[in-house]
Amino acid sequence: MDRGLWITWYDLPDGGREAHLSWLHETYIPGLLKRPGFLWAAHYASVQKGTMRTTRREDALHRTTDPSVPTGDRYILLFGAEHAHVFGNPVPSALHAGLPEQERKMLAMRTGERVNIMVEAARVDGPEAKEYDSEMALAPCIQVGNFNCAYEHEEEMLAWYAQWRMPAMERLPGCIRTRRLASVSGWAKHAILYEFTSLEARNQYFLTHEDRHPEMKAWSDRMVRRLTHAPGSASLACRIWPAVSN
Asked: For 51-60, 63-72, 123-132, 139-148, which range has the lowest pLDDT when averaged over its residues?
């Protein structure tokens, strides 16, 4: 199983962006997928803020103001492995330091780069999982939140995910999978990764799924207020590698 994830959020300048993406998709990702233990990769471009459909709750998310936390969020690159220690020998920074100079120059184009190594704490399949024939490959559309929570509220957060949010995703049309993640390294201690068949399906079903459950909606509102998100979180993104077939 793919229980370990290496997630990188970052931005790119306009100049040289296409060259960087071509290198990433044609050289960097295929090269890393040859390494022992690497199972899959997926690269996403985030839906621009201001154009994505959100709820009032999402618009009011509390995000960290700590200037030491990198702010990249335009691209999200994920690698999956059987467990997190695959990404510990070597760690990403050491792996990158060992790349040829030209490849290190490509990596240096990234700005606001933020990295988490995470493990999967829980997973549920949505209604669309049985029709999704791409095995472990991440879905065409994802929403990923990465955040911290004061320890005194973490037990309630565990209950909320286990008793309400994850079971709700098992029933949500358009949902393929939902993964609850815990951090091994990186700023965010927690993350949630939703996988949807398409951006349209996410917009149609996810934003209104609590409307018929006001008591659960109130619980969600209370829980979300207790989280401190990374810059740009929660990110809604569409897959650009591997290409999504029509």
From this structure: 51-60
Per DSSP, the three-state class of 228 is strand
Give whole-number Cα distances, 124 to 25, 40, 72, 170, in Å: 29, 19, 28, 6
> Judging by beta carbons within 10 Å of its beta carbon (0-12, 13-18, 19+), is residue 48 exposed, middle or buried?
exposed
User: Residue 125 has which token pair?
Assistant: 């399949």
Please give the torsion angle defined by the CA atoms of residues 121, 122, 128 and 132, in that order, rounded to the nearest 10 degrees: 40
Domain hosting 48: range is: 4-241
Domain for residue 246, yes or no? no
Amino acid at 51: T
Six-digit token string for 107 = 């990596």
**Beta bridge pairs of residue 41:** 79
- CB-CB contact of 45 with 77 (8 Å): no
Q: 211: which 2 tokens?
A: 């409307």
Of 8, 11, 17, residue with least CA distance to 96: 8
75, 106, 147, 228 from 116: Cα distances, Å: 14, 20, 11, 16
pTM, rounded to two decimals: 0.95
135 pLDDT band (50/70/90 cuts)?
A: confident
Number of domains present in the structure of the chain? 1
What would the two tokens of residue 4 be? Answer: 């370990």
For residues 219 and 205, what is the distance between their CA atoms, to the nearest angstrom?
19
CATH code for position 194? 3.30.70.100
Asked if residue 14 is part of any domain, the answer here is: yes
Cβ–Cβ < 8 Å for 87, 6: yes
